[in-house]
């Protein structure tokens, strides 16, 4: 009984340590993502880009640290928790693998697949929420309340963009930049959807490209 208790406590300590480590790693990553998003959003929503503020990166970083750390902490905790749960599930699978029936194996596979899909979706939504936090300055929940409905209204565009990003195998930093520009354009389009291209914050070429991709994706979905 004593050895079982010690072994159980060891598992608990390791589990908590892993959760804390992942939380810290995802928190640092979230700070970087939000800082990049704030810089890109400042560029996007500035009409005269020749007069962008100096020290934009440093200023954005300190704004994120002082005003948005809690939002990043919440988002990073969700990602860390889901990653942790997936690890626990994988460990459970290895423990019961030899005793599994065919139905149990099928069920385990379905759960594993669902967790993987949910993790990918949560990471993407979380990244967009960071972008929304950087643009709106709202809390995590407030930014999520704005971002998720806007993404839902532009599902075709979201899918089209992610296909391009996946096909290009872009690096994480570049992907954050693209996601920020894309989400900024969704806000821009919501503000100026019925107006001429000159009214948009987006440069003319970028406006034409994103409009074409979005309209093409929506027509494809309708067909």
From TrEMBL:
Primary location group: membrane
Localization in the cell: Cell membrane; Membrane
Coiled-coil stretches noted in the UniProt entry, renumbered to this chain: none
Membrane topology qualifier: Multi-pass membrane protein
Name of the molecule in the record: Choline transporter-like protein
Taxonomic placement: Eukaryota, Metamonada, Carpediemonas-like organisms, Kipferlia
Function text: Choline transporter.
GO CC terms of this entry: plasma membrane
Family according to the record: Belongs to the CTL (choline transporter-like) family.
An example Gene Ontology molecular-function term: transmembrane transporter activity
Residue stretches spanning the membrane: 12-45, 65-89, 159-186
